[in-house]
Amino acid sequence: MTSALGIHHITMITRKVQANVDFYAGFLGLRLVKRTAGFEDAMQLHLLYGDEQGSPGSLLTFLVWEDGGQGRVGFGQTLEVSLAIDPASIGFWLTRALQAGVRTEGPTDEFGEPVIRLKDPDGIIVKLVGTHAFSDAAPHAAPGIPLEHAVRRIRGATMLSEVPEETESFLASHFGYVRLDQSGSTRRMASASGDIIDVRDAAGFWSSAPGTGTVDHIAFRAKDMDELNQTLAALKSLNSSTTNAHDRKYFESLYVREPGDVLIEMATDAPGMTVDEPLEKLGQDLFIPPLFMRDEEDVRVALPQFSMPGEERVIYRDLPFVHRFYTPAEPDGSVIILLHGSGGSETSLMSLAHKANPRATLLGLRGRSTEEDIARWFRRFADLHFDEKDIASEAEAFAAFMEEAIQAYRLDRDKLSFIGHSNGANFLAASLSLYPEFAADALLLRPMPVLTHWPDADLSGKRFTLAAGETDRRREKASTLREHLLANRADADVVIVHHGHELGLDDVELAKRWAKGLSTTGLA
């Protein structure tokens, strides 16, 4: 058994990073103490909030699945997260929620404590619990929240288990929690540090599914590596579903699923959040794990950007396509619109486009037509047999997106250009020919024509660079597309690069030359 230090952190999954920051740093007043790229997946942003010092026991962390799929809360998952406030602060938080337009339930009495229930922007239930515990906490001083009303730290969490007796025994045996009380189907357990885990009997409840709006795992504290290793050895002796210990820079950790299938982590207190940033600057810089440092710039471009409360930010509009902006530190006013290939996403071409023009604002879109669970821009019936009705429908939606985006984001039509790859390049060529009023200079990587009857459109003054792969089996299709574009009075050229259908370094160099050509015509 561990030294029963209680909860280290709770990790959740969010769909919209800006709304998440506004809620946890803005409304709740927690301190953003760390922003990192993922240790397993560098293209996944990870945010950590906490008290003034980023102390173990205060940390709420979020994996950012920007515009990702919604999860489902069920057994084998955590239902609620609770935060400790002073009991006298209940009125303050009810008033603050009313002023901010945040819906509340309560206050109610749970195990003798006043509780307000809120939902964060992803629908995760957050409870504010009035308790006299943790009087020695060091809360963060946030604008508009007097220190005496500030969130102190994590109070606890509610786990849904089909085998509550086994879950209770597991928490007692390996993490030092003891039963305090029981109310209905909920068993309250507490650690020596004072935080609580409520184990709720979820027999007959529906199963859980991972995704945004859910809790990924709860992490309990280990005093040091010796204690971590002792717990690891004890769990292995039970033939449990443990993994090896992981170095997460700010703590060492291990993972296990308890008998009710809730994912649990154990994390050491040291070295802590100040290992790479001084206390006064916590959370200001983005950390890239060493494994991904070689691709650091690519990672920074792909991760979603956000602003702290009160700072200027991109206000995203509800438009026909999921989309993502990347704004460089010194934008030159040009905007490159990016359409990914089959199975890609709105960030797939951002690295290439950023290398082509580091000062361009990038606007990546995600195709809406899915095939075999991958994102595409239109359906296909068979190889080289495309659903042209779907192409026409999606092209109409793309034209609507362009019109609304130009208005909503105040884009300069004269400074727009496009890059598309494979399925995205094919769709782009067809869409700009169907709606030539939105046409602009474009780089089409591995393109081919996808319409049986090519529309008659005036593309005068528009330059299309078509990159065909030397070993691509559809290489000659690029020349066929070029003939269509030339017939529509566009300036179109085919360039052969030393690759197949995939993208490579030659495409990056071509993109640089293409972007430089834009600047010579006054676009950038």
Describe, in short, the structure shown.
With 524 residues, the protein is of the alpha/beta class. It is 23% helix and 30% strand.
Q: Which stretches are poorly predicted, pLDDT < 50 over at least 5 residues?
A: none
Nearest-integer average pLDDT: 94
Given the helix and strand composition, which structural class is it?
alpha/beta
Distance N terminus to C terminus?
63 Å
Counted beta strands: 28
Biggest β-sheet strands, sense, barrel:
9 strands, mixed
Radius of gyration: 26 Å
Strand composition percent: 25-35%
Shape: elongated
Binned, the helix content reads 10-25%
Quaternary structure annotation? single chain
| Largest sheet: spatial strand order | 14-15-16-13-1-4-3-2-17
Instruction: Count every helix, treating DSSP H or I runs of 4 or more residues as helices.
Output: 10
Topology readout:
Layout: E1 7-14, H1 17-27, E2 31-37, E3 45-50, E4 59-64, E5 77-85, H2 90-100, E6 105-110, E7 113-119, E8 125-130, E9 153-161, H3 164-175, E10 178-183, E11 186-190, E12 196-201, E13 215-222, H4 225-237, E14 246-247, E15 251-257, E16 263-271, E17 286-287, H5 296-302, E18 323-326, E19 335-339, H6 350-356, E20 361-365, E21 369-371, E22 374-376, E23 380-382, E24 385-386, H7 388-408, E25 416-421, H8 423-434, E26 442-445, E27 463-469, H9 475-487, E28 491-497, H10 505-520
Parallel strand pairs: 1-4, 2-17, 5-8, 9-12, 13-16, 19-20, 19-25, 25-26, 26-27, 27-28
Antiparallel strand pairs: 1-13, 2-3, 3-4, 5-9, 6-7, 7-8, 10-11, 11-12, 14-15, 15-16, 18-20, 21-22, 23-24
Helix pairs in contact: 5-6, 6-10, 7-8
